[in-house]
Amino acid sequence: MAFSGALTLTDLNDFITPSQACIKPVEQVLPKKEENQSGAASNEIKIDNGSYYEIVDDSASITGRRKLEQAQISLNDCLACSGCITSAESVLITLQSHVEVLDFLSSNAVASPESRKVAVISIAPQSLASLAASISSSSSSSTPVTTLQILHRLRACCKEALGFAHVFDTTFARHVALREHVKEFVERQEKHCMKNQGEDGTALPMLASACPGWICYAEKAHPEMIPFIATTKSPQQVMGTLVKDWMGQKWGKSPNEIYHVSVMPCYDKKLEASRTDFYNEMYSTRDLDCVITTAEMQLLAQEKGWDLSLPVPGEVIGPPLDATLEEALLPELIQHPGSSSGSYLHSIIDYLKVNSPLPLSLSVKQVRNADYEEYVLREEGGPNEEPRVVFKGAKCYGFRNLQNVVRKVGKDSGVRVGIGAAGRLKGKAGVVKRGKRGTEDKSYDYIEVMACPSGCVNGGGQLKPPANFEDSEGFSRDWEESGVSMDSIPAAKWGNKEWTKRVENAYWHSLPTPPPSPGRENHMTHSGKRRR
C-alpha cells in the first residue's frame, strides 16, 4: 500500500551515506568576484563568541573576515527532515506495519504452547469512525453503519481470520486518561495559585499531551513549551499499560508474553509507541508492540479475504456471544461530550462545573476558524455584579494555529519563544513581560492541542474517501473531477473537509450533533498511570 505523500515514517532515516545529499544544505550567497588563481589558499571558517566567521583572503576586506548569517529552517523543512528520528527508532518504526503483524501471527500460530504469546488488538474510536464512514458511503443502504457494528465486525475478523485472542476499543483507556488528566490540571492550578511555579512541571497553561505530532514538534522546535505539557499518558499508552499489566495479571501472563497491537488514525502513534518512556526494562518489552493505521487495518482484513461491509451475528446488541470475559467486562465505546479528539478540554470544563460552589456559564468563541476556539467559564454574580472569569481554555488543531498558540503562551507566561517556526516570525521573539490584564484578556488555563486540522478524525492514517460519494447537502461528489487525485492520496487529507465531516458524523452517530454541553455523567472513578 502507498503511504502518505507528505510524510512517510517508514522512510525516515537520519543516517546519511556518501551517496545521499543533505535534505537542507546550508547555502551562502557570495558576491561575484574573479576566480582565484590555481594554488590560491582556501578560505577558512572560525567560531568567535558563538558566531561563525569566514576568513576572507581579500585585500579589500578591512578585518579579513566576514560574519556568516544563521541558516533558517522553515516548518516544512522541519517536518520533512529525518533528524528528529534516530537510526534505531527508524528501524522500530519500519517494523510497525501490517506485514509485521501478519508475520507475527503466522509464527505465533505454530509456536509451542510455552512460547506462544497472547495476541491482543485495541482499536481507536476515530479508526472505527473512518471505517464506518467509508463503508456507509460505499453501501447502497440508506442506514449508516455504526462504530459499534464496525467494532464487532473487526472483532470477528481479528479472531476468526487473523488469530487474535482479544479485541478491545480504546475508549475505556481514554476515560482513564481523562480522569488522570483532570487530576493533573487541578494539581497544577492549585500550585499556580500559590505562586509555586518552578521546574516541576506545574506551569500554566497546561497543554494536552496526547498528540505525538505536537509533542515531537515541541521537543525539537520549542523545548521551552515542555514544562507546560501534561505528563499524563495518551489513551494508546494507557491501554498498553492496562493490557500488559492489569489484564496480564488476570491471564497469568508477564508483559513479554503478550503481543499488543494498536489501530490508530495517525502515523505518529507508531513513533510514540517506540519512545523509551514506554519501554519495560525488566521484561524487555514495550507497552505497544506494533501500531498500525486505519488503512493498514483495512488492508489486513482484505488480505485475509474478510469483507467488513458484511454484518456479523449480534453486531447491534452489545458484546457478541464469542466475546471473552474481559471484553464483556470493559465497557464498549464509552461516549462523551466534547471533541472527537479525546475531549480533554471538555473533561476539565465538566469537572469545574460539577465542583463549583456557584453556577458557572460556558461561552464559546471562534477565534480564527473551527479549529481554533476559546471556551470561557464565568461565575454568575449578583444583579449588580460582573460575571467573574474562572477558567479560559482553547481548542487548537493544525500546525498553523499551533504556532499562534506557542507565541501566545510565550507572551502570556513571559517565556522566551525559541528559534522554531513560531519564534522566527517577525516581531514575536523575545521575552514579553506580563502587564495588567482585564478579565476578558485572562490568559489560557488549558489548551487542547492537536497537530492535524479537524483533529484525530482527520489523521494521516485514516481511509481516503471513496471515488464518488455524496457531500453534506446530499449531492453526488466526484473527487477526481474536483482535482483530488485519489491514487496519490492514500488517506483522508487535510483539505478534504467534506469527507472529514462524514467521518465526524460517524464518530458522533449515537449522540446528538453537535454534542451536548459537559455534564456530570462523564466522570470516572479510576485513574491511570502517568508518563514520566
Shape: globular
Average pLDDT for all residues: 77
How widely separated are the two ends?
36 Å
Report low-confidence residues grouped into runs of 5 or more.
1-24, 424-439, 479-493, 512-532
Q: Kindly state the percentage of residues in helix.
A: 25-40%
Strand runs, count: 16
Structural class: alpha/beta
What is the alpha-carbon Rg in Å? 26 Å
CATH topology call of the domain at 86-174 and 234-329: Rossmann fold
Tally of DSSP helical segments: 14
The CATH class of the domain at 86-174 and 234-329: Alpha Beta
Q: What is the correct CATH architecture of the domain at 86-174 and 234-329?
A: 3-Layer(aba) Sandwich
Succession of helices and strands:
EEEHHHEHHEHEHHEHEEEHHHEEEHEEEH
Biggest beta sheet attributes:
5 strands, mixed
- Assess the beta-strand content as a share of residues: 5-15%
Can you list the strand order of the major beta sheet?
6-14-13-12-11
Region (Disordered): 508-532
InterPro entries: Cytosolic_Fe-S_CAF, Fe_hydrogenase, Fe_hydrogenase_lsu_C
GO molecular function, one term: metal ion binding
Family: Belongs to the NARF family.
